[in-house]
Amino acid sequence: GGCRRSNKGYWWIWFIPAQTSFYLLSALLSHQIIITQPRNKNNMSKSSQQLNVEVEEVVDDSSPSLNNYHEIDEKVVQQIVYDALVFTTLNGLLVGDKSVQRSGRVPGVGLVHLPFSLLPPPFPQTHWNQACELAPLFNELVDRVSLDANFLQQSLSRTTKVDEFTSRLLDIHSKMLEINKKEEIRLGLFRSDYMFDEKTQSLLQIEMNTISTSFSGVGCIITQLHRNILSRYGKSLGLDSERVPTNTADSKYAEALAKAWSEYNNPSAVIIVVVQAEERNMYDQHFVSAILRERHHITTIRKTLAEINQEGEVLSDGTLSVDGQAVAIVYFRAGYTPADYPSESEWKARLLIEQSSAIKCPNISYHLVGTKKIQQELAQPNVLERFFENKEDIAKLRKCFAGLWSLEDSDIVKRAIETPELFVMKPQREGGGNNIYGDDLRETLLKLQNSDSQEDAAYILMQRIFPVNTEAILVRNGFLHKDRVISEFGIFSTYLRNKDKIIVNNESGYMVRTKPSLSDEGGVLPGFGVIDSVYLT
Asked: What does pTM read for this prediction?
């Protein structure tokens, strides 16, 4: 058998009858073809028993578009899923299986792939550029706000009366002010999350994460996966792998940590990674640690807050020593939720760390800047002017702010009760699964109105963003599920300053979380969403 192209752009295929079904099936599966009648039946030789089939290549217009992933041939989808699952296993897009008891403690036990989207969602190039350009500005904003102790204390004063967790954090901040503790070396590994609002065609910020920003490691792997899939299947799908931007967030995070370690200037000091006792997402964390070890020759040690309390001390020169080892940096991948402080031991460890000369990532001030209340305060009129003089920078930041309100605003509360579908109610919490929506939002507001307590200070109201929903193929536990979804785009950033010298202030990669459009929460590990990348349009 064989094939050749005609002078009119058609392909001719000929083969013996015994092979007809095999070659036709192969052509159909791999090339998207149209079978037509041969132009001259007399050309067929009965003696040779050949069959001519005219095959016309289909142009990209008939390929599944970015918004029509559900139209992809089912056999092709199954093959891509198989290849993707192999890739995730070989390259470490993994998490501990929650059904396996030791999967959060012992590496290599009970592994399962992280839930992921098979193909990346579309995102406008212009808004992508906007998010990347905002990263250094938000870095500077966090740093400047963190230095304004009065602003932090006053903004959070009412919240602390009803939120014990924020109160304990602010108490540590107050103790550092009392002893005039100076943080000359300031390191931030941040992530600013956005959604593209369909109605306003605007990029709007969801939140600024200043502690334990996750998925810098596995976010790079999902990007590699999507680029790999599109390099193999992109032509038949009408997609270009180069439209998925490269991602080196793990390397950028490690580089910032390494530069901070150098600024500390103690070659024998280690980096402590503060972790939860049970951490199914440990592999995301190990990517950064591995790069620090292999490229920068820096040792990292994983410790819980309880272990730091038991093994740690502050030496006379201010050095933090844990289990006899000097600590240059304390990198928090835990400590962002009340569940991480089950006893006084954890709070003692947090205070011990803040009292030491070790670089904190983040320090207590950076942590507080990431609270929802501070985000809401920064969105108030004339507040950004307290921290920036450049009007263009102020305009860029304010342009991406969604509506944010205190529950002290009675008019907004009334509107939220009447139209709860237009709002989200947020507590001072990180980690996903804490927001309040719809009828629950209305009931909570009515309950607070009828209460004499100040519990309303524990929450803020935020404009609900309605992003474009698209078709997606989601893969969880080896099974695929087709759904309509929305996506949240996170831009990682790194910031390092030693006294007045800014050493690092960069956009540093990205991650995307995608969830069914009917789901309110989007956390990947809690089971709401999947990890994703992006296809720039």
From this structure: 0.84
Q: Which of 186, 191, 350, 442 is catalytic?
A: 191
Look up 47 and say whether it is catalytic: no
Confidence of residue 33 (pLDDT cuts 50, 70, 90): very low
Q: What is the mean pLDDT of residues 199-227?
A: 96
Q: Tell me, yes or no, whether 382 and 500 share the same domain.
A: yes
Three-state SS at 517:
coil
Contact between 111 and 481 (Cβ < 8 Å):
no
Structure confidence at residue 24 as a pLDDT band (50, 70, 90)? very low
Same domain as 121, residue 16: no
* pLDDT tens-digit series, residues 284-308: 999 999 999 999 999 999 999 999 9
From CA 351, how far away is CA 173, in angstroms rounded?
9
Whether residues 27 and 100 share a domain: the answer is: no
| Catalytic (active site) residue 372 | yes
Domain co-membership, 15 together with 112: no
Is 521 annotated as belonging to a binding site?
A: yes
Name residues whose C-beta falls within 8 Å of residue 28's C-beta, 6 or more positions apart in sequence: none
- Catalytic, 302? Answer no
Residues 138 and 218 occupy one common structural domain: yes
- The verdict on whether 191 is a catalytic residue reads yes
513: annotated binding-site residue?
Answer: yes
pLDDT band at 408 (very low <50, low <70, confident <90, very high): confident
Task: Verify that 274 and 378 share a domain, yes or no.
Answer: yes
Q: Is 469 a catalytic residue?
A: no
Active-site residue among 227, 303, 372, 373? 372
Examine the fold and report which residue of 14, 36, 58 is the final residue of a domain before the chain moves on: 58
Same domain, 130 and 33: no
> Into how many domains does the chain fold?
2
Tell me the residue range of the domain where 51 lies.
2-58
> Which one of 214, 289, 406, 487 is the catalytic residue?
214
Final residue of a structural domain among 15, 40, 58: 58
| Cis ω before 362 (30° cut-off from 0) | yes
Question: Which tokens belong to 157?
Answer: 């004063």
H helices then E strands: how many in the chain? Answer: 15, 24
- Tabulate helix, strand, coil % of the chain (nearest 5): 40, 25, 35
Which whole number is the average pLDDT over 517-535?
Answer: 77
Q: Is 511 annotated as a binding-site member?
A: no
Residues 510 and 472 in one domain: yes
214 as an active site residue: the answer is yes
179-201 pLDDT, tens digit per residue, is 999 999 999 999 999 999 998 89
pLDDT, tens digit (0-9, with 9 covering 90-100), for 365-402:
999 999 999 999 999 999 999 999 999 999 999 999 99
431 is catalytic: yes
